Amino acid sequence: MLFFSLATCWLTLSLASSLPDSESKRDTNAVPRAAYFLDNDPSGASIVSLDILTNGTLSNPVRTLTGGKGSWAKWIIPSPAPPDNTGFAGPDSLFSANSIVVSGNFLFAVNAGSNTLSLFKIDPSNTQHLTLVGKPVGTLGDFPISVTYSEKLHIACVLNGGTRAGVACFSVDASRGLVVLDGSLRSITPALNQTTPPGGPILTASDIMFNPSSTGLFVSTKGAPPSSAGASPTLGFIYAWPVVGKTVSTTATISQPSGVILDFSLTFLGADDSILLTDAAGVGYILSVSSGL
């Protein structure tokens, strides 16, 4: 598989609006909506659910334990300094995207401190009500940091970013929960030689994503810029595993798109042949993906 990269500008736009108080209340006829984030607490991770009002305002936080523990990556580069001067990663404590994913009435969350993945069912009539399905399952590696789900295949795959770095996949059942698919950890340790917890943000795992047709599974990992103390400069990596039927290959195609160093989030642009890849340095790239993994 070949990648051709085109650099583009990547901007963040913040919008704000002011509405009368009467417009900020819940519409009783509206479909319930919620926003979710992961509280990556080493003493016990949890999902925080927030009610979304009709004007987009968030309210009424509800906390649900994941059944696992969080963990914090280490900040190892001397410049810039750690965000909170503690030596840990700060607000982005996993150096990753998609540590929590919602698909339909399923919610998936990683537990980096206990090396497990949790599955919840969302009550469609009360979207802040989450029910843990089964027990959190081991991810076959260390420090899980990102998860993806294929509704077509009923398969979830998780990216581990610690000493045993790699991908494990699970079948998803609404009653039984998560079941290890094949017992294989698809290693990415040739590109990453990490500790548990990992040190970064350079040379760490970033994101995992199925393509829209669920015929490929993709992972991004960060490289190191020339200015990184103690690390040889390298581009970031993209791993791609073919998926045939419900079988995720154990052999990946590995690419290093030209000019991309701190590969971060992966977003397919509506089709299998185009990816928006963000760079942690604040740049975005459009990657063209050739057919046939």
Automatic annotation (TrEMBL):
Keywords: Signal. It comes from the Eukaryota. InterPro entries: WD40/YVTN_repeat-like_dom_sf (IPR015943). Residues 1-16 form the signal peptide. This is 3-carboxymuconate cyclase. It comes from Trichoderma harzianum CBS 226.95.
